[in-house]
Amino acid sequence: MPVVWSDRCLLHEPLAEIWVGVRTPAAETPERATAILAALDTRVVEAEAHPDDALLAVHDAGLLAYLETAWDDWATAGLPTDPGQDRVVPYVFAHQGLGARRPPAAAWARPGWFAYDTMTLVGPGTWEAARAAADCALTAVDLVAGGQDVAYACTRPPGHHVTRSTHGGSCYLNNAAIAAAALRDRLDAPVAVLDVDAHHGNGTQEIFRGQDDVLTGSVHVDPGAGWFPHFLGFADESDAGNLNLPLQPGSGDESWLAAIEQLVEWAKPAQGLVVALGVDAAGGDPESPLEATAAGFRRAGELLGGLGVPTVIVQEGGYDLAAVGLLVRETLLGFETGRA
Description:
Layout: E1 3-5, E2 16-19, E3 22-25, H1 30-39, E4 44-46, H2 53-56, H3 61-76, H4 111-114, H5 126-145, E5 150-153, H6 175-187, E6 191-195, H7 202-208, E7 214-221, E8 242-247, H8 253-266, E9 272-277, H9 294-305, E10 311-315, H10 324-339
Parallel strand pairs: 1-4, 1-5, 5-10, 6-7, 6-9, 7-8, 9-10
Antiparallel strand pairs: 2-3
Helix pairs in contact: 1-10, 5-6, 8-9, 9-10
């Protein structure tokens, strides 16, 4: 299985998150990607640059323009010096109740139009890394469309929380959605995005809501139990093209794998597959209350591989640096077994 990678994915250094107003160390760090790559013994394919058209298929042009210039605008406004904020952080938000109709002019207010949380900071290398991650996903699509059964894109930063016009959840561009739209077009057939990250893929759901050529399914910790993304990911959002399977905190292999098996069965009409592979459902991950095991991830890979359709696997979460590489490796090995 080829692994698609770009060293530019390491350029994003958020340094911190602002959580309930408190600056805490960032969980989404470059070391996540290097730990994954170190655990994989396979050929690495360098990501190739792709035109913005593939991004515009799922994102508004305004979001792309903002992300590309956010850091430069912040620095030009002198904000790293006064008040001394070394990353782009929103402080006021265009809440739906305001009835706001246009992005604000001030560099310190503009982030609140395009970001929906204070955790997802922008720094000097953020756009370059996010753009490279999208190119990793698109290069994996190229490989699969060219006849490869499956390709794994080691995308970092992750992306499944990004909607068509807003970003958050440590995500900037929705790599899985970008891959799904491109794979659908290349195969000229319906595809499915199955998200096994511990947190709901709210951005992917929003982007493809109401479309019958991209199915979206997600198994994740129940947002009703107090977990991100809080406002979305409930079972009653499911419809013909979207299936949410929320789990209670503490759920382990049995219920997690049963949900994945249900997603796989539901996705059988699709002729292509994008797996949004977060491994933060594992017990011991600091960002999730789920309790899946390494053996569970191996079995999850087998189930997903059993669909037997052209597949792009896109990396999402996983924050236990001692385990993230092993868990990704187990999933990919299981996928290859399931394909056999």
